[in-house]
Amino acid sequence: MSRNPTARGARAAGTALAAAALLAGCSSHSAASGPPAPTTSAPDVPGRADVQAGGSDLTITKAVAHLDPAGTGTLTMTVHNGAAVPEHLDMVATPDAGRGALSGAAKGDNGAMTDGGILLPAGSTVTFGGTGPSIRLTAVHGITAAHTLPLFLQFGVARLVHVSAIVSSG
């Protein structure tokens, strides 16, 4: 191993240039090469979102955030996966960088927690809340004047989906 500071500096510079070239090559894909962006119909209907894109077909209905005065509570909703492939809900984001805590259903595959998130089998309808999977919200901020809570739901196939949950006390 060389103890020459000039040689070490040259190797470090060469390694940095190679890494930069590799990263530039990896990130230089066009938007057309990636999966199509999901399309959400009826985005202005509180509690509902319809998503069709890239093999996904989701219908989200009855999205309600049941919150106490401190902004803590649960999100209930029904998600129908009309696609021929399973889907997973792996994240719920709330305003101000908040996150919902996901828990899987107690029994069965429909709504179970997996490594990919809450399982939504192909052709199934999963009800969040009650005996199904649940989403716990803590100290949520960002409720609109129309008493809705803007949410982003991250799915494995459908990707990022926006839905405005209706806010209910308690």
Structure description:
InterPro entries: PCuAC_sf (IPR036182). Keywords: Signal. Residues 28-43 have a biased composition (Low complexity). Residues 1-31 form the signal peptide. Residues 28-53 are annotated as: Disordered. The protein is mainly beta. It has two domains: 1-34; 39-169, PCu(A)C copper chaperone (Immunoglobulin-like, Sandwich), CATH 2.60.40. It has one helix spanning 5-26; strands at 39-41, 49-53, 56-67, 73-81, 87-94, 98-99, 101-103, 113-114, 117-120, 125-128, 134-137, 148-155, 159-169. Strands 1, 2, 3, 4, 5, 6, 7, 8, 9, 10, 11, 12 and 13 form a 13-stranded mixed beta sheet that branches. A hairpin with a 7-residue loop joins strand 1 (39-41) and strand 2 (49-53). The longest helix has 22 residues, at 5-26. The radius of gyration is 22 Å and the shape is globular. The protein starts with a helix and ends with a strand. Mean pLDDT is 80; it is low at 4-36.
Architecture blueprint of SSEs:
Layout: H1 5-26, E1 39-41, E2 49-53, E3 56-67, E4 73-81, E5 87-94, E6 98-99, E7 101-103, E8 113-114, E9 117-120, E10 125-128, E11 134-137, E12 148-155, E13 159-169
Parallel strand pairs: 3-13
Antiparallel strand pairs: 1-2, 2-3, 3-4, 4-10, 4-11, 5-6, 5-9, 5-12, 7-11, 8-9, 12-13
